[in-house]
Amino acid sequence: MVREDQSGIWTNFLAILDSVPEDSIAITVYVLGTLIILWCWYAIAKRLPSPLGGITWIFVFAVIATPTISEGPNSELAPAVFGLLFGILTKDTPLIWSNLALISFVIGLGLIIGYFWSKYKINKNTVKNSTVVNNISPL
Question: Which candidate, 40, 79, 85, places its Cα nearest to that of 63?
Answer without folding.
Answer: 79
